[in-house]
Amino acid sequence: MEAVTKVEETAAVDLDALLDAGEGPMVTLVAGETRLMARRAVLAARSPVFSAMFSHDTLESSSNEVTITDVEGPVLRELLAYCHTLRTPHPSSMTPQVLAAADKYDLSGLKTECEQQLASLLTVESAAATAVLAVRHTCPSLTKAAVAFIKANFQVLATQGWADAVHNQPKDVVEVCRLLGQPPIKIRYLSTGISFHALASSFRLGVSTVSVVVKDELKSLGRQVVVLCKIKAHNFS
Length: 237
Prior knowledge:
Blueprint: H1 2-21, E1 26-31, E2 34-39, H2 40-46, H3 48-55, H4 59-63, E3 65-67, H5 73-85, H6 95-104, H7 108-120, H8 127-136, H9 140-152, H10 160-168, H11 170-180, H12 185-190, H13 196-203, H14 207-235
Parallel strand pairs: 1-3
Antiparallel strand pairs: 1-2
Helix pairs in contact: 1-5, 2-3, 5-6, 6-7, 7-9, 8-9, 8-10, 8-11, 10-11, 13-14
């Protein structure tokens, strides 16, 4: 096992070195002042976006140089390292940017790994930014995790992170608020007009138990509605 690990680590180092060495058929990727060399065939194999770019008569295909917008140099390096090694970067402050880049270039494996990393690192301060990121880049599992975290920790709505999200990504915040305002499944179940007796039978619970559960859910939903109304009033004031 140790031998295999050493081989993988050596291969990773060698492949990382190739990003700068320019060996073999390469293409130059440019992000600001950062210029990195990558194997054209590997990029095309990993990313449908790069594959389409290189298989058509495009400027990038003819010049062998691709300008990467909205991506910083360190993030680009992580992206290319993954393409060559399929090793996910360790969680860091760059993980949200890596996720966004993975989404842009359709690196689904890297995107999924970044989702899992961010979900495991949710905090009161980071939840708002993570929720907005998840909504913007269509990350269902991360969106679910972030919304559930905010519902369980409504102090998120009083953080600077939430205020920044409202100011910088208002459309995405509206979607997050919509998800926060969705009633629990028990309440949605009742909205069909089903009786307590039928609901009790469906959940295999006593009628009195269902009554207590529904009342608790309604109280919780009421508190959420009050908070959301205050947020909406503040945003439009």
